[in-house]
Specification:
Layout lengths: L1 H14 L7 E3 L20 E4 L14 E4 L8 E7 L2 E8 L7 E8 L14 E10 L1 E8 L8 E6 L7 E6 L18 E10 L3 E12 L1
Parallel strand pairs: 1-9
Antiparallel strand pairs: 2-12, 3-6, 4-5, 5-12, 6-11, 7-10, 7-12, 8-9, 8-11
Length: 211
């Protein structure tokens, strides 16, 4: 289990670099590109977390909350769940020469084993970004250099929850070759606050699912 936690820590620390590559507008849905499956065809839905349970996600697996304190940072984070909404907020304080980060990790299997998501087209969030920069990654066991497929969620000022749908084909790696995401090897989803300098963050999540 320690090796799994170490892997998740590295995942969140390195995935946030993908935030510089692409941003998804939290005010609207993202339309699939030409290479994505036909959005009009029937598709299954997998609920990962509706935050109705204070300890476990909707797959019955405990949530993991990590931050850069394990790599020398001083980020302060608090999480709470109330009425089916996860609130995560705090202040980023990066370690010397590294970005700051704080992450909520939603595993798809209790032991972190890869799961087959070939039946799905992308990931869907109900989210409110009140402050700070938010990155989301879908993590594959096939990626060995921790440069996972990710995107950022842009903040809007209305103070409302927004539905964000992101086709898997729009998730990109930051510094590696843009290889397709192997949907037969997905281990987890990471929701990551990140920053290069000391700064506050405040996010709320109502639901995370695959569609």
């Amino acid at each position: 289990m320690k090796s799994l936690q170490y892997l998740v820590t590295l995942t969140t620390a390195l995935t946030l670099f993908s935030a510089c590559s692409k941003s998804t507008d939290s005010n609207s849905k993202v339309e699939p590109d030409a290479s994505a499956p036909d959005s009009t065809s029937p598709s299954a839905t997998l609920l990962v977390d509706d935050f109705s349970d204070p300890k476990k996600n909707s797959l019955g697996i405990g949530r993991q909350f990590l931050d850069d304190s394990s790599t020398g940072g001083a980020t302060q984070t608090t999480q709470s769940i109330d009425k089916g909404v996860l609130s995560t907020k705090g202040e980023l304080a990066p370690p010397r020469g590294q970005p700051a980060w704080a992450s909520a990790v939603l595993l798809l299997h209790p032991e972190g084993l890869p799961q087959d998501l070939s039946a799905y087209q992308g990931i869907r969030l109900l989210v409110r970004v009140n402050q700070g920069d938010l990155s989301i990654s879908v993590n594959s066991s096939e990626i060995t250099n921790f440069d996972y497929h990710a995107t950022t969620i842009a903040r809007k000022g209305e103070g409302k929850f927004h539905e964000v749908t992101i086709p898997f084909t729009q998730l990109k790696r930051a510094w590696s070759a843009q290889t397709p995401l192997n949907l037969e090897t997905i281990t987890s989803v990471s929701l990551v606050a990140f920053g290069l300098q000391k700064s506050p963050f405040d996010f709320e999540f109502d639901e995370v699912s695959f569609y």
